[in-house]
Design goal:
binds flavin mononucleotide, eight-stranded parallel beta barrel, single chain, binds iron/sulfur cluster, 22 helices, four-stranded parallel sheet
Length: 587
């Protein structure tokens, strides 16, 4: 008997029975081929989610009309006739595990065709939105002519047909996050004078017609899901009451609502759409709950979910019928199976650090801070053979890297010895427990410690490894994961008892005075500054470079920026010259 009976009660969506209430939210990749086909690696990425046990696996933004709809140049292009084999193989890989394959039909509207793809494609092409516009980049958006509206409507029907032929058991129509339909719905963006502008009824017309085209293509009973916002969180945009109205308008055309919010293309909203670590888990669930009050079709919620306890409660209390998980299933694709079998403590939590999204922007690949398999799903599937010879592995350092290496080596069947110089495992993550926005990091550390304990690794605490010890142990493999040392600037006064390291400050923040200067505005300095600011201290961060957190991925940088503005005074382009009795000399 599972501890989460509501989560694991099957649900019927349209004519489709789905084995549980945990859906993999749409996640796109940046590594499809230039023609918008899925590679074998891409298939393995989606397959792993299905293997982990979720009921539905959703492919991310898949463009119905590539000539005008791509918001970047590596998206699945559903109108390319050659996309079908790779789509079919992906759907098969998903359904093999009893999950339903779902695909998100999308169009970028005014964000398609200009800056997003201009850097990669030789030709520049106009972007079309509901109305004429000029983007912050200075690029012009043309009002979409009706002829193009009807062409895109045909493309929605054709794309749904392709998805069904490929073996997908559900389609999701994307009407949120600032893309095409969200633009048409928004009175802020849609100033049209024809039947596609004006009243909400008119602004919703394009979306409703697209849903009709999709229904015509897939036939009755085939589940159509709509992803829409519950709030744009933009002045002049749509808010919850408007979305309740919209939900009533589309209800007869869809089988499932997924309620998200915000915008992909606006920095301040991105970190709400994909809730940052500074927000509560499930901070957007209330929007789904409100929509659920006004419709009778099932509703799913999304955003910073991953704790099975919380997910169970959401469904048990009828706030939503389904939970959709994005990043939590990157951090641990086996979350559903672990929850089902009561192994909650072994679920790797997502840190909401945005490395996954940041990495894909930098180099088009996939990576997760806490799951080394992400980005290497295919290797993991085929190439990890048991070792031919059991080796003795010596791991130096019991921080996250040392623990992960030790666990992996032990799982592969090697004899592993881990030495840690302090009296506890955890390394630089030990202080996360005291920091409100690092609770997931704390949980992650505890999860690794439990895995080390249960994986047969022999741990020795309070023991430095020197040459003599290494020679005595005589390992076949030596893994050094001894961590980093802080750079201590050689300035006058640095040895004063007023100067402490970040680790000391985080270990005992109450011992600091009320006014704190932090030398160094990288990630660690910024996060410490925010934490101390939250505790009521007056914090100034001094950074030599022109911006704080310069090396942090752009998405976590956005979230940090919002918090820094609340809690910290920043001095950029400044250098600490000396620590004096009166404070800090800068230049
Ligand atoms: C790597 C990644 C890719 C995503 N791609 C898409 C996408 O293609 N379409 C979409 O609607 N949402 C996309 N999302 C947003 C998720 O579906 C989800 O709404 C969001 O991440 C919040 O859920 P979470 O906190 O569980 O991650 C993506 C999220 C991530 C992390
Ligand atoms: S990279 Fe960070 S935010 Fe993304 S899934 Fe992994 S832990 Fe979560």
């Amino acid at each position: 008997m599972t501890p989460y009976p509501h989560l694991f009660t099957p649900i019927k969506i349209g004519g489709q029975l789905i084995k549980n209430r945990i859906f993999s939210a749409p996640t796109g990749l940046m590594s499809y081929t230039a023609r918008g086909h899925l590679t074998t690696e891409n298939m393995a990425y989606y397959e792993l989610k299905a293997k982990g046990g979720c009921g539905v696996v959703t492919l991310g933004e898949s463009i119905v009309h590539a000539a005008t709809g791509q918001s970047h140049d590596r998206q699945i292009c559903l109108d390319d006739p050659h996309v079908l084999p790779s789509l079919t193989n992906t759907a098969r890989a998903i359904t093999r595990y009893g999950a339903v394959a779902n695909i998100e039909l999308s169009h970028g509207g005014k964000y398609a065709g200009l800056a997003s793809i201009g850097g990669h494609k030789k030709e520049r092409r106009p972007a079309y939105g509901p109305s004429h516009d000029v983007l912050p980049s200075g690029e012009e958006v043309l009002e979409m002519p009706q002829k193009l509206i009807y062409e895109i409507l045909d493309a929605y029907g054709a794309a749904a047909d392709v998805a069904k032929r490929a073996g997908f058991g559900m389609v999701m129509v994307h009407a949120g996050h600032g893309w095409l339909f969200n633009q048409f719905l928004s009175p802020l963006e849609n100033h049209r004078k024809d039947e596609f502008g004006g009243s909400l009824e008119n602004r919703a017309r394009f979306l409703l017609m697209a849903l009709d085209r999709v229904r015509q293509a897939v036939g009755p009973g085939f589940p159509i899901q709509i992803r829409m916002n519950g709030d744009d969180f933009t002045e002049g945009g749509l808010h919850l009451e408007d979305y309740k109205e919209l939900a009533r308008m589309v209800e007869s055309r869809v089988d499932l609502f997924n309620i998200s919010c915000g915008s992909h293309e606006r920095q301040e909203l991105f970190v709400r759409t994909h809730p940052s670590a500074f927000l509560d888990h499930g901070c957007n669930v209330y929007l789904a709950a409100a929509i659920k009050q006004v419709v009778s079709k099932p509703v799913s919620c999304v955003g910073a979910l991953g704790d099975p306890e919380q997910c169970e409660e959401i469904i048990a209390s009828s706030q939503a019928d389904i939970v959709e998980l994005g990043r939590a299933l990157l951090a641990d694709p086996f979350l559903p199976k672990k929850a089902y079998t009561g192994q909650k403590e072994d679920i790797t939590p997502c840190l909401r650090c945005f490395v996954c999204l940041g990495e894909s922007v930098i180099n088009g690949t996939n990576r997760c801070s806490v799951n080394p398999v992400i980005g290497a799903e295919l290797e993991e599937k085929y190439y990890v053979a048991p070792p031919l010879r059991k080796k003795k592995v010596l791991v130096v350092g019991g921080g996250p890297a040392g623990m992960e290496a030790a666990i992996t080596a032990a799982r592969r069947g090697h004899e592993v010895l881990l030495y840690e110089k302090t009296d506890a495992l955890g390394g630089a993550l030990k202080f996360a427990e005291a920091v409100p926005f690092k609770q997931d990091l704390y949980r992650f550390t505890q999860c690794l410690i439990r895995r080390v304990e249960s994986s047969g690794v022999k741990v020795t605490l309070n023991q430095r490894v020197d040459r003599a010890l290494a020679e005595k142990v005589r390992p076949d493999v030596l893994i050094i994961a001894a961590g980093a040392q802080p750079v201590i600037p050689a300035i006058p006064g640095i040895a004063s008892d007023k100067v402490v390291s970040v680790a000391q400050a985080e270990a005992n923040p109450d011992a600091l005075g009320e006014r704190v200067v932090i030398l160094g505005g990288g990630l660690v300095g910024c996060e410490t500054g925010i934490h101390l600011g939250m505790k009521g201290k007056q914090v100034t961060i001094v950074e030599m470079r022109d911006t704080l957190a310069a090396d942090v991925n752009m998405f976590h940088g956005m979230a940090l920026g919002q918090e820094l503005n609340k809690y910290v005074t920043a001095v950029t382009g400044g250098t600490g010259r000396a620590v004096t009795d009166g404070g800090t000399d800068l230049h």
